Amino acid sequence: MKEKRNMLTKEEASTDESYGFYPFNRPIEEYIKNGVVCIDKPSGPTSHEVVVWVRKILGVNKTGHAGTLDPRVTGVLPVLIENATKLVKFLQTSGKEYVGILRLHGDVDEKKIHEVFNLFKGKIFQRPPMKSAVKKRIRIREIYYSEILEIDGRDVLFKVKTEAGTYIRKLCTDIGEVIGTGAHMQELRRIRTGVFDENSTFTLQELSDAFKIFKETGDETFLREIVKPMELSVATLKKVVVKDTAVDALCHGADLSARGICYIEENINPGDVVAIFTLKNEIVALGKALVTSDEMQKAKSGIMVETNRVIMDRGLYPKSWKTEK
């Protein structure tokens, strides 16, 4: 069940249909260039190879993925397209969920296995494995939950949800060391990245077929089913909705002032990362809230959100701001 998210009204406003597009109604070329496709990565290729294949299938210039999966690891790999690649950094920091098999190197009482698994919850220290591309320094990562689903001899089927940047292979090794027998990660599948789960995924072949159908027949139905608007990527963020007249200034990097706001989602606090949307539900930018939702609603002037990352291209909405001389 989706959490109910209430919006506060600061100023009622309407949008001019002459500018911008409702995300699901973008013309197909714009739809693709502002889209994300969640690929069910097969075992074998690297994440980079999958991203390149998506780029070639769609005939676009730029693609990016949200979190590397090792060649043997399968599962949820969101691939962002063209303009949507501006959201890669945000998605890479989203929480991840996995199911996997840990193989112990010796026989162990099941009670002890459960006891040790329970130790690896909350914040843990972890040094990246030698084969990883990052610095091999100890860092803190959070295990939101871990659960043993089944134990079959030396094989432990588990499910875990972690902070981004947690190495599950290293987690398995560390658990094996504490148990005393040693262990390694036998199999792993990512079942969630941010808002994207296994129900969101499609194969590379399905994407290729959908694009071929579109090119040969003009039928966009299947392609639109597989490629989703990039706005879905930030569905977990608190929203601030702005007037049409504020959009172009934000696209030029301006911070969001009180006068540009129409609606604010409840429970925003200073320092929160928020998504700034148009009245058509297009994402304009990501920013840092400087005040609470209530303060935004009451404010007559002043900067409410500091713009950190502009997502929307300039020129989609008319210029309604003046440059100081």
Strands, helices and their partners?
Elements: E1 7-9, H1 28-33, E2 35-41, H2 47-58, E3 63-65, E4 74-81, H3 88-92, E5 96-104, H4 110-119, E6 122-126, E7 139-152, E8 155-162, H5 168-179, E9 183-193, E10 196-197, H6 204-217, H7 221-226, E11 227-229, E12 238-242, H8 244-251, E13 256-257, E14 261-265, E15 273-277, E16 283-289, H9 293-298, E17 303-310
Parallel strand pairs: 4-9, 12-15
Antiparallel strand pairs: 1-14, 2-4, 2-11, 3-4, 5-8, 5-9, 6-7, 7-8, 9-10, 12-14, 13-17, 15-16, 16-17
Helix pairs in contact: 2-6
Written account of the structure:
With 325 residues, this protein is α+β, with helices and mostly antiparallel strands. The chain has three domains: 7-20 and 237-310, Archaeosine Trna-guanine Transglycosylase, Chain: A, domain 4 (Roll); 34-92 and 196-230, Pseudouridine synthase (2-Layer Sandwich); 96-193, Alpha-Beta Plaits. 24% of the residues lie in helices and 32% in strands. It has nine helices and 17 strands. The protein has helices at residues 28-33, 47-58, 88-92, 110-119, 168-179, 204-217, 221-226, 244-251, 293-298, and strands at 7-9, 35-41, 63-65, 74-81, 96-104, 122-126, 139-152, 155-162, 183-193, 196-197, 227-229, 238-242, 256-257, 261-265, 273-277, 283-289, 303-310. The strands form two sheets. Strands 2, 3, 4, 5, 6, 7, 8, 9, 10 and 11 form a ten-stranded mixed beta sheet that branches. It has a seven-stranded mixed beta sheet with strand order 1-14-12-15-16-17-13. Helix 2 (47-58) runs parallel beside helix 6 (204-217). The longest helix has 14 residues, at 204-217. It is globular. The chain starts with 6 loop residues before the first strand and ends in a 15-residue tail after the last strand.
